[in-house]
Design brief:
The protein is of the alpha+beta class. It has one domain: HIT family, subunit A (2-Layer Sandwich), CATH 3.30.428.10. It is about 20% helix and about 20% strand. The protein is built from 2 helices and 5 strands. Strand 2 and strand 3 form a beta hairpin. The longest helix has 17 residues. InterPro entries: Histidine_triad_HIT, HIT-like, HIT-like_sf.
Length: about 110
């Protein structure tokens, strides 16, 4: 498999990690869209939210728990942050290994849903 995030999990590609436990790893995005831009991924390869199966649901909880801790440690928990998962090419998903973007550190613009 040629998944860049799996290679980060394996340690074959370096990253600036901010969190790691048995199931999840989080690291700084190399092209940040906000002053705080952290990617949170499960260590298990799952291509997208559409591929999460019932035995993997605990990973979503692990990701959200990590997001809370990271937001506190990055100093954005009180002022606010955005936690985003893009699913599929029309959403902007580029790396097909489920991941969440934790964005904060400034006032973020409104999401314009139609």
């Amino acid at each position: 498999m040629d998944c860049i995030f799996c290679k980060i999990v394996e340690g074959a590609i370096p990253s600036k990690k901010v969190f790691e436990n048995e199931h999840v790893v989080a690291f700084h995005d190399i092209q940040p869209a906000a002053p705080v831009h952290i990617l949170i991924i499960p260590k298990k390869h799952i291509s997208s939210m559409n591929d999460v199966e019932s035995e993997d649901w605990y990973l979503l909880g692990e990701i959200h728990s990590a997001a809370q801790q990271i937001a506190r440690e990055q100093g954005v928990a009180e002022t606010g942050y955005r936690l985003i998962n893009n699913c599929g090419p029309d959403s902007g998903q580029v790396v097909f290994h489920i991941h969440y973007h934790l964005l904060g550190g400034e006032k973020l613009g409104a999401l314009n849903a139609r």
